[in-house]
UniProtKB/TrEMBL annotation:
Subunit structure: Homodimer.
The species this protein was found in: Roseibium sediminicola
Pfam families: APH
Enzyme Commission number(s): 2.7.1.100
GO molecular function per UniProt: S-methyl-5-thioribose kinase activity
Name listed for the protein in its UniProt record: S-methyl-5-thioribose kinase
SUPFAM superfamilies reported for this sequence: Protein kinase-like (PK-like)
InterPro entries: Aminoglycoside_PTrfase, Kinase-like_dom_sf, Methylthioribose_kinase
Uppermost EC category: transferase
Domain of life of the source: Bacteria
Family membership noted in the UniProt record: Belongs to the methylthioribose kinase family.
Keyword vocabulary terms for this entry: ATP-binding, Kinase, Nucleotide-binding, Transferase
Gene: mtnK
NCBIfam families the record matches: MTRK
Length: 414
């Protein structure tokens, strides 16, 4: 075994290959013969092992050199694990406790050893199963605000931030996936696209709308060119793990510097897709109550984001942007400037939100909220609502300033 060369782990070999890693042995017990290893990766890209020993349990996540969902015909660089590790470290600093703790990183093997979250469950599954999570929206809104603010030049020293932009700009293949699958493929007949029978007219309508496509391209330009802050990059309900009262954010390998509204928009889109898919998953007696709860989570996300962002604006505005020298030191409030910025972030977020709603039903990687629906006619009816609202969000994002307007729109399309 050559430790200088990358080799994917297998459950059978993991013990012998990682028994000398103190971050594992010291936590779960030093005798690998007593480790129980299970591969649990359910994502599109990586190997994930639960490694359970007599004294504890850790997660080992290892990148594969190709897209797991597609196979080795689609290579993907291992270096994304390097960026995921850096992202987890920064997120832990910016929102302590929000992400699993990293215990060990091995660049050659492209693997991260991290905290095992238990009894946490993937949020997407909980939403399909009709389970509620206390404090969910507030936690996520706070996470988005803290990472957006503290990763930007509202807070960071410019030199530090620019250096970090340089570091993360090496992660080129991963943003390219988002640029294609999320922003581009839904709007033409890209090779890997697929959609439910019955949606052809809706899809033709989207592709026939040059104004809509132009707005999507404008948002793609912001995504590809703005380096406002370090974004998670893949903040959907499959990247959140929750108990009934606690949540954590995982899987930031799509990290990049990007627009402040990107994570917020992706997140809201995934709650809206959970909302629109509910008629297929809930008994009629529970449907309205659970859908209302999902909308209340969206409200909490948006409100929580604004509240935390304004708090950080008032207490941690130590960067180059909007300095006190221009406002408070001249006896002027900067509150209006903050509100105007928040309005821009919200408008961007709702645009990204609409695009995410489109790509999850039209492009390569769909989500279980809709994919688990067996009744094809019902599935296409619910997906059509989701697509229509997505289009309205892209076209009308500036006009939907308040959370209440957004929720009303969702109720109208439901
Ligand atoms: P991918 O990048 O391939 O999507 P993820 O990081 O999303 O990989 O992990 C895949 C799955 O592994 C998750 O859906 C979850 O079930 C499990 N998992 C990942 N990280 C943890 C963790 N820290 N604790 C417990 N389970 C985890
Ligand atoms: Mg994942
Ligand atoms: Mg996953
Ligand atoms: Mg991932």
């Amino acid at each position: 075994d050559n430790p200088d060369q990358y080799r994917p782990l297998t459950p059978a070999e993991l013990g012998s290959r990682l028994s000398t890693v103190p971050a594992i042995a010291g936590r779960i017990g030093a005798d690998p013969a007593r480790w129980n290893v299970r591969e649990v990766g359910d994502g599109n890209l990586n190997l994930v092992f639960i490694v359970e020993g007599p004294e504890g349990t850790v997660i080992v996540k290892q990148a594969l050199p190709y897209v797991r969902l597609v196979g080795d015909s689609w290579p993907l660089p291992l270096y994304r694990a390097f960026y995921e590790n850096h992202a987890l470290v920064r997120q832990a600093e910016r929102d302590p406790g929000a992400v699993p703790a990293v215990y060990h990183f091995d660049e050659t093997q492209a693997l991260i050893v991290m905290e095992f979250l238990s009894p946490h469950k993937i949020l997407r599954r909980k939403l399909i199963d009709g389970e509620r999570v206390a404090d969910l929206g507030a936690f996520l809104g706070r996470f988005c605000a803290r990472t957006a603010f503290r990763g930007s030049e509202l807070s960071m020293k410019s030199a530090d931030k620019k250096k970090d932009v340089g570091l993360f700009s090496g992660n080129v293949e991963i943003p390219a996936i988002t640029e294609a699958l999320v922003f581009t493929d839904p709007y033409y007949s890209a090779e890997m696209n697929h959609h439910t029978d019955g949606l052809d007219p809706v899809v033709a309508g989207l592709r026939g709308d040059a104004k809509l496509k132009a707005r999507v391209q404008r948002l793609l330009m912001k995504f590809a060119s703005n380096t406002e802050t370090m974004v998670h990059g893949d903040l959907h309900s499959g990247s959140i793990m929750s108990t009934d009262s606690e949540s954590k954010v995982i899987d930031p390998e799509f990290v990049q510097y990007g627009p402040m509204g990107f994570d917020l928009g992706m997140l809201v889109a995934n709650f809206l897709m959970a909302y629109f898919s509910q008629p297929a998953h809930r008994a009629p007696t529970e449907l309205a109550g659970y859908q209302d709860w999902i909308l209340s989570v969206i409200d909490d996300v948006l409100t929580g984001f604004d509240t935390e962002f304004r708090h950080l604006w008032a207490t941690e505005r130590t960067g180059m942007l909007y300095p006190a020298a221009l406002f408070e030191d001249q006896g002027q409030s900067s509150e209006e400037a903050c509100l105007a910025l928040l309005a821009d972030i919200r408008a961007d977020a709702l645009g990204f939100c609409g695009i995410e709603m489109h790509r999850r039903t039209l492009s390569l990687a769909h989500n279980a909220d809709f994919e688990d629906i067996q009744d094809a006619a019902l599935k296409s009816r619910l997906e059509a609502r989701n697509l229509a609202m997505g289009a309205e969000l892209i076209l009308m994002s500036e006009a939907l300033g308040s959370a209440e307007k957004l929720l009303d729109l969702a109720r109208r399309y439901n």
